[in-house]
Specification:
- The protein has 9 helices and no strands.
- It has 148 residues and is an all-alpha fold.
- It folds into 2 domains: 69 residues, 434 Repressor (Amino-terminal Domain) (Orthogonal Bundle); 60 residues, no CATH class.
Amino acid sequence: MASKKVGTLIKEARTEAGLTQEQLARKIAGLSASDISAAERGQKDLTQDQLKKIAKATGITQASLLNAAKGTTAKKTSSASKSSMQVTATEKKLVQLYREADSDTKKKVMNLLKGKDSLAGDLLEDLLDKDDLVEGILDTVQDLISGK
């Protein structure tokens, strides 16, 4: 049954995005948390429009959900041809670290990237506000450069 596969994809995408069923439902007009729950269990078929909105809200491709809903699979392609986006080594490392992180860490990273968590920015600002500390660091760096 195609809806079981769709449900599994929805649940995986939702949890990876750090969303509860209620949070996801709020992003999709006409769906409740119980609708999301039923869809994840394969007990409710969603419209293509709803699947597209879920894909957008969770950051997965629309094709993966739509193909699962139709009971088809996307044509397998090499990883190099899946996307035309160029990724730097740093971005690859970030993806690797993100995939290895636990769900709590993933949520914190997403909040930081979305600007919801300014802890790092606040810490940097606090450090920069400390004139003596900054001057001390600059003096140390200058001493190291000049060989003192």
